[in-house]
Specification:
The chain has helices at residues 36-45, 70-80, 96-103, 115-130, 156-159, and strands spanning 86-89, 107-110. By secondary structure, it is mostly helical. The protein has a two-stranded parallel sheet. Helix 2 crosses helix 3. The relative contact order is 0.12. The structure holds S-adenosylmethionine (SAM). Residues 64, 66-68, 91, 93-94, 96, 111-114, 117 line the site of S-adenosylmethionine (SAM).
Length: 162
């Protein structure tokens, strides 16, 4: 069975008149690669991409202070290149662009002036090849706090400003 990402809006239905009118428009198995363009189209319609940044406990986080999330680059790679194309990132940091390109069977060139970041980029590419790289799958719904978590509470010192 395909391993899908649960749909964010599973209750969505087809709205255009026709055979599918009012039927669920999503996939009961969730988002999977065959849904890719549908979910990207939905987000384009929404006019912005909502992708968590690489802070706190993000699985892709390295020591780089301004690392891109892989998904951000993946979307561009898929939108603007074909399988086998070259992708160049002259400010490659820890290799996010190269990882995103390789994930989708593109070739990549990455420049980076800091040796420490080059090393991390190399290790990420090796981990990708070995199947051990931790990353957030494209299209994974963003965790919404329930309100009960400690980090979702308004700090006591802020209450005086309300
Ligand atoms: C915004 S960061 C890129 C982060 C990258 N997108 C990632 O996810 O890891 C820009 C990077 O460009 C590098 N850089 C700046 N000037 C450079 C230059 N002249 N040649 C190569 N790399 C450079 C910096 O060291 C920094 O790591």
């Amino acid at each position: 069975m395909p391993c899908g990402v649960p749909a964010k809006y599973p209750g969505k239905t087809h709205f255009k008149p026709g055979a599918n009118y009012a039927k669920p428009s999503g996939n009961p198995l969730g988002k999977n690669p065959s849904d890719l363009w549908e979910f990207l189209r939905d987000e384009w319609d929404g006019a912005f991409w909502d992708i968590p940044n690489c802070k706190a406990n993000h699985p892709e986080k390295t020591e780089h202070p301004c690392q891109f999330p892989i998904e951000l680059v993946e979307r561009c790679v898929l939108a603007f290149t074909d399988v086998g194309d070259w992708v160049l990132d002259p400010f490659g940091g820890v290799g996010t662009t190269a990882v995103a390109a390789a994930l989708h069977q593109r070739r990549a060139v990455s420049f980076e002036r800091e040796m420490a970041y080059q090393q991390i980029a190399l290790e990420r590419m090796q981990a990708l090849q070995a199947g051990t790289l931790r990353y957030r799958p494209m299209g994974k719904p963003i965790h919404e706090p329930t309100g009960g978590e400690k980090v979702a509470q308004v700090p006591a010192q802020w209450l005086q400003h309300r």
